[in-house]
Write a structure and sequence with these properties.
This protein is mainly α and 248 residues long. Helix content is 60%, strand content 8%. Helix 4 (106-130) runs antiparallel to helix 9, helix 5 (133-141) packs antiparallel against helix 8 (202-218) and helix 6 (155-172) runs antiparallel to helix 7 (176-196).
């Protein structure tokens, strides 16, 4: 086990050879009370989900030694965690090159967004039946800071609010299984939402869509809420198809 437990941030991944510098991701040393493999798995998976994996054209390679140092454990639980993540499709092994974070092609991204649209629209339908008035009302507070300014003026903050909104719709469905099913789509759909939200005035259209969705939920209009949420995601799929050739 490594004795380096200073609690600092260490880079989880590096770009492929020829690219400039490491990609820093935030990781902290693991506690000793839970399986190191399970903690390493959760920490690495969360770091991958938080990363802008499509904002760089270079492939992102994991550095096993640096992971061990950052998390304060030996390489054995790191390898075991990465094996699980590879089985789930988050990582891939390239012989003689290393282990890389998986990125999807444009076609795959569009298919994932379409699947997300189907699941989230059902979540919205269930939310009209299962969520409390207070839970639905809380959705409005996510956008309070953008009432007196445009989302484009605070694009980073709006991007996070946008992602949190879509997570909340899933949560308000009351379906634990739906949340687990959509989890592996989330890493890629979240990254694409974050990357595209600043383009072509999408932020302004996005917040208008969100307000209409919230109104439908407040009125318990099951059919309308389902339709609006589905179309909102399908619009993203169309945008990706027309504007994201860099994914090829």
């Amino acid at each position: 086990m490594s004795d380096d437990r200073d609690g600092g941030t260490q880079p989880l991944a590096t770009r492929a050879p020829g690219a400039a510098g490491p990609l820093p991701l935030r990781l902290r040393p693991l506690a000793a009370s839970v399986s190191f493999r399970d903690q390493a798995y959760a920490a690495i998976k969360q770091a991958i989900m938080d990363a802008d994996i499509y904002s760089h054209r270079e492939e992102l390679r994991l550095d096993e030694r640096q992971l061990s140092k950052s998390l304060g454990v030996s390489r054995t639980p790191i390898r075991e965690a990465m094996t699980l993540l590879e089985q789930e499709g988050f990582l891939r092994t390239a012989p003689r090159r290393g282990i890389f974070i998986v990125r999807k092609t444009k076609k795959q991204i569009i298919e994932m967004i379409e699947m997300w649209a189907a699941l989230e629209s059902m979540a919205a339908r269930l939310a009209t039946l299962n969520a409390s008035d207070e839970e639905i009302a809380a959705l409005r507070t996510m956008f309070d800071e953008f009432r007196n300014s445009t989302p484009a003026e605070h694009i980073e903050e709006y991007s996070e609010a946008n992602i949190a909104f879509h997570q909340a719709i899933i949560r308000l469905s009351g379906s634990h299984l739906m949340g687990k099913t959509i989890e592996n789509l989330f890493i890629h759909v979240r990254a694409i939402r974050r990357l595209t939200i600043s383009q072509a005035d999408r932020a302004a259209r996005s917040i208008a869509d969100h307000m209409r969705i919230i109104e439908a939920l407040e009125k318990r209009d099951t059919e309308l809420a389902e339709r609006l949420v589905r179309q909102h995601s399908l619009d993203l799929a169309v945008f990706v198809d027309k504007n994201c050739d860099f994914l090829e």
